[in-house]
Design brief:
Length: about 260
């Protein structure tokens, strides 16, 4: 069953930053979807004053163009839906500090262009030293769901398989449009796909303010799992700055390529 439905049967004591060390998919979903029963509690400390971030986690977001990858990262890192959205060129990332169990963690959400034309040019930089993977599809666009297999294959080619101990989750975005759209991805089918690929499934909306806590909970649940694990590689502060410069150079090169080639109709 989906995380949202499973949460309804749980006691109200469940909370996002509990010391839950289970690795089961159901409990990951439960922690992130139970916000409706505990939304008055803070999801994480609001101030990082007095803390020093010793660990930085790189989380990549994969999915077709237009599924809302940028909007999800913007909602979590900036606390709101972006007023203006444009197609991502190359790669970009946003970051946020979060205090979990008295430890300040820095999470980088790396967002990539979903267009096929960019995949091969960014692959070497994008998949390097990844700590977690978030796959995103549009619940009102079945073709974006069908494309998930190719994104998973791309990950596996770069060493990010289900057996690599790197957490992977699946997000169905734009659920605010699901009831009014004739074409939609069935939740049960999505859950079966997630189960086959050893991922937790979440359905949410980056746009709807009513889902803001849910988006927050999804990423904090993932970060909590990373905080409890011992990842193979965690960035130092120097590496973090180097990555930011790498991202700027890569994005600039992709923008130049786009200007030279022009848009295709």
């Amino acid at each position: 069953m989906s995380g949202r439905r499973y949460a309804e049967s749980l006691p109200s004591a469940c909370f996002i930053v509990i010391s839950c060390r289970t690795k089961t998919t159901q409990n990951e979903q439960t922690a992130a979807t139970h916000h409706k029963k505990s939304h008055k509690l803070p999801l994480a400390p609001t101030s990082s004053k007095g803390y020093i971030a010793k660990r930085t986690f790189k989380v990549i977001i994969l999915g077709d163009a237009g599924v809302g990858k940028t909007c999800l990262s913007f909602r979590f890192c900036c606390g709101r839906f972006p007023e203006h959205t444009e197609a991502t060129i190359g790669v970009d990332f946003r970051e946020r500090n979060c205090v979990i169990e008295k430890e300040l963690l820095k999470v980088q959400l790396w967002d990539t262009a979903g267009q096929e034309r960019y995949r091969h040019s960014i692959v070497g930089h994008y998949y390097r030293n990844v700590n977690a993977v978030v796959f995103v599809y549009d619940v009102t666009c079945p073709s974006s769901f069908a494309s998930l297999r190719s994104w998973i294959n791309e990950c596996e080619k770069n060493g990010l398989s289900a057996d690599s101990d790197i957490p992977r989750i699946l997000i169905g975005n734009k659920c605010d449009l699901k009831s009014t759209n004739a074409q939609r991805v069935d939740t049960d089918a999505a859950q079966m796909f997630a189960d086959r690929n050893n991922m937790a499934l979440f359905e949410t909306s980056a746009k709807a303010d009513s889902e803001a806590d849910h988006v927050e909970s999804i990423f904090l649940t993932l970060l909590h799992k990373l905080q409890q694990s011992k990842p193979m590689h965690v960035q130092s502060e120097g590496e973090r700055h180097a990555k930011e410069q790498e991202r700027l150079v890569l994005k600039a090169s992709e923008a130049n390529a786009l200007n030279e080639e022009g848009w295709c109709c």
